[in-house]
Amino acid sequence: MQATEQSAVLEDAKLAATRIFGLISPELKLVEEEFARQARSNVQVIEYLGDYLRASGGKRVRPALTILSNYAVGGDGSRYNSIRMATVMEFLHTATLVHDDIIDSADTRRNRPTVNALYGNETAVLMGDWLYMSAFETSLAERSLSILDILTRVTRKMTEGELLQLTTLGRTDLYEEQYLDIIQRKTAYLFSACCEVGAILGGASEAEQRALADYGMNLGTAFQLTDDLLDFTSTDDMLGKGAGVDLLGGKVTLPLIYLMASDPATREMVQTVITEQGYESVSRRELLEGVGRVGALERARTRADEYAAAARSALDTLPQSEHCESLRAIPTYVLDRDR
Hints:
This protein is mainly α. It has one domain (9-315, 322-328): Farnesyl Diphosphate Synthase. Helix content is 76%, strand content 1%. It contains 17 helices and two strands. It has helices at 3-23, 25-38, 44-55, 61-72, 80-104, 115-119, 121-139, 145-168, 176-201, 206-233, 236-239, 245-248, 254-262, 267-276, 284-293, 296-314, 322-336; strands at residues 108-109, 112-113. The chain has a two-stranded antiparallel ribbon. A hairpin with a 2-residue loop joins strand 1 and strand 2. The radius of gyration is 20 Å and the shape is globular.
């Protein structure tokens, strides 16, 4: 993609984000306030880390999905129970990030030091656990078995995803189906849960609830596929963390799966980077040239486009509204963002 084209695409993504998040900006402000309230503790280190993590927050995509899904089925996303549960979803997401950073030995996220880098793995593990337990404690206030079932299921799926990924670290014989299964457990199920919980709180019919759950699953898959592509195409500053680090940690993502399938001789290159945990004998540029030569990035991008299209199609059964249109616009933001 030419620089001018890439700039235009990024500008479209920013405009999409402005429209999406601008529509519910009052509700997202309430989520920030509720995050601060739920993170309060009489244990000083928890209070401090809760504030630190809240200040490190990104676009709050997951709370936005909960709120927009609520509105899309005729609910009131500004009601306290919607804000409370949107915050619970962000707590779950934040907990997974804290634990992921420990597993990945990550030093930075969103251009800030990670909790494990600042205070060590022991503190980070316990803080992640505290966030999980706080999320479930807060969700109990809904007195909804269906919501608790969703949260229990998604937490189990995310843990399974992490464990499955650990079993595949360093392996160059990963298939596309295995890779997709891992990213759906790690990422997409939480997107789906956000939408489904929002739908339940909004009084959705079973058909609407299913449609939004499917929307979230497809959107989450497109999100993670794009995230993995950015590890190849973005820079450290744009990502807010090191670019090209997935492979250094032994993670083989879809572009490399396509590369090795198209050119088996490159398997040795990939294995060398994993073994050395660095781009020494094989440079990052060489790998980028390889995936470019066989069209692996384009193929992976096509897969992300397919999941994004499936997400939009899942919304066809919902009544038309500005909130439904915002949900329909989120895949554009997801595909074209630069971080």
